[in-house]
Amino acid sequence: MNTTGNKMKEKIETIKTTRLFLLNTIDGLSEEQFNRIPEGFNNNIIWNLGHMIAAQQGICYLRSGLALQVPENIFHEFKPGSKPEKSYNQQEINKICRLMTDTLDQLITDIEKEIFINYTNITTRYNVELKNIADAIAFLPFHEGLHSGYIMSLRKLV
């Protein structure tokens, strides 16, 4: 694997570390707490977790012309532009929490396999241009940080 691949793997490991910290922070919350949308917010903790997964899948896999590595319903329920439409039970919450790390492990495996050959450029809503998988992975910590902040705020209110 080349230097770029190793740097991408390092960034993904950092994202995984922060996701594990976040999961530890919300460990023990009830179904109601994961699903509650406090006044002044338009989403909840479980939506933010799912959205982090869906965004990563979209900018890494779909923009590369590759298949999603999560069930399609999860992608569609949490993709950019979506909003919470239902309450999630404990089994669904557990699955999303597992995907927080499993999807990153899969991303590392796929980088090692060098499957990210093609990439369709996109300019994010934050005016960041993503031209390849390295750009996508470099953008993820910013996006994850935003949603981690939302989760920390929501946690205090639920």
Brief descriptors of the model:
3% strand; mainly alpha; Four Helix Bundle (Hemerythrin (Met), subunit A); 158 residues
Structure in words:
The chain has a single domain, classed as Four Helix Bundle (Hemerythrin (Met), subunit A). The protein has 158 residues and is mainly α. The longest helix is centred in the last third of the chain and has 25 residues, at 133-157. It has six helices and two strands, in the order H-H-H-H-H-E-E-H. The chain has helices spanning 3-26, 31-35, 45-60, 72-78, 90-112, 133-157, and strands spanning 122-123, 129-130. It has a two-stranded antiparallel ribbon with strand order 1-2. Strand 1 and strand 2 form a beta hairpin. The protein is 63% helix and 3% strand.
Summarize the topology.
Elements lengths: L2 H24 L4 H5 L9 H16 L11 H7 L11 H23 L9 E2 L5 E2 L2 H25 L1
Antiparallel strand pairs: 1-2
Structural class of the helices, strands and pairings?
Answer: mainly alpha
The CATH architecture comes to Up-down Bundle
CATH superfamily, please?
A: dinb family like domain
CATH topology: Four Helix Bundle (Hemerythrin (Met), subunit A)
Q: So what's the overall shape?
A: globular
Biggest pleated sheet: 2 strands, antiparallel
Which regions are unreliable across 5 or more consecutive residues at pLDDT < 50? none
Query: What's the mean pLDDT score?
Result: 95
CATH class bucket: Mainly Alpha
**Helical content class:** 55-70%
> Largest beta sheet: what is the strand line-up?
1-2
Whole-number total of structural domains: 1
Number of helical elements: 6
Counting DSSP E segments of at least 2 residues, the number of strands comes to 2
